[in-house]
Amino acid sequence: MTSKPETTAAGIASAVAARKMSALDATETALARIKQHDGILNSFTDVTADRARAKARAIDADIAAGKEVGPLAGVPFAVKNLFDVADLPTRAGSKINRDLPPARRDAALIERMEAAGAVLVGALNMGEYAYDFTGENVHDGPSRNPHDTTRMTGGSSGGSGSAVGGALVPIALGSDTNGSIRVPSSFCGIFGLKPTYGRLSRARSFPFVASLDHLGPFARSATDLALAYDVMQGPDPEDSACTTRGLEPTLPLIANPVSDLRIAIAGGYFQKNVFPEAVEAVSRVARALGATQVVDVPEAARARAAAYVITTTEGASLHLDRLRKRPNDFDPAVRDRLIAGAMVPAPLVDRAQKFRRWYRAQLADIFKSVDVLLAPATPCTAPKLGQVNFNLDGVELPVRANIGIHTQPISFIGLPVVAVPVPLEPLPIGVQIIAAPWREDIALRVAYALEKMGVAAAPSPRGI
Where are the residues of the annotated region Disordered (predicted)? Predict the structure, then answer.
């Protein structure tokens, strides 16, 4: 059996199943690449090498015995460290959580990935308690952008973005409350899927905002993204939001033509507060798809404001005991926002929730006549690490608060989105492919078509 330098999940799984490469070879290749490059990227907080090798050997033994192996057989993957990983404390990017006892069982999505044959190689750096858009963790240090290590990965799934963007692993899992999958996808030049709220189980993952939290995959191709997403689907009684939908496989569908789809550009709010590179990326995607219609999304700015209110108040409620007992062990920026959230008047929260219901209905009306909306994933390419402000049309805006300006109005109502990477020079940037609830298949079809056209692509890492 000889090793082959496969880099995609689909390629690795195919080679392992065909006995052209062993699962152990694929695992050792990933572990070697992590050892070589993670000192620079700082993607990982934990590397589970012994566990990974044991899993890979078991897969190879099954293949040798003629047993069937799953569609991700031998594929290395890693997870944001808010996922429970058996025998590790679930850090959630914090100092405080390191004092927790080790998790006794893996998160539901890890179990589903491993049931499909994937091999967990570690846990990934992230913004503290997922309240972050930069990828800069004060306890573990910043994850670094694989295309320019002086720049941000985006957050809060920063380690997931850098690990996949740096080709340390072909697939990583992250979470997205206000943009934490789509922002790192944009900055690190990879594909990311924020599914419909309630589509993938959040069981045994550390929460941030229960009514906004989503889990999902990152990958270097649309096919790999669909492959990972499909094996994680299915209801789970342990997550009350994930109990209504059965399996709806997308991988056989993504190669379908997109000429029948009604694709529009999100206008108004989504064309404001953007740098030229974001405008260019959306324009390239729209031209490739033949999209000329511009649809205004009503009150998107207010949706972002309401998302902030719900985020900070729900987050504060979750962390009140920690804020009282260990305030000095928080990242000060996170602590101060949570304290502010604890003081938001209840009537304001009620107004935000009522507005969310109205806003959801407005978007439902739009999706009666449109299948897909295109919008920037971030207003710019990756800022410098430590950068506090950026200048937009002569106005100084805080970086941390405005990176998610175009993602928050979408996750606010749980719509499915694929972020596709547009490989501009010198840095990539992402575009959101937004679909109606439960139509991940449509967003993935568009992503796949853009990849085949050469418009969307994950560039090779240039910073390592």
Answer: 138-159
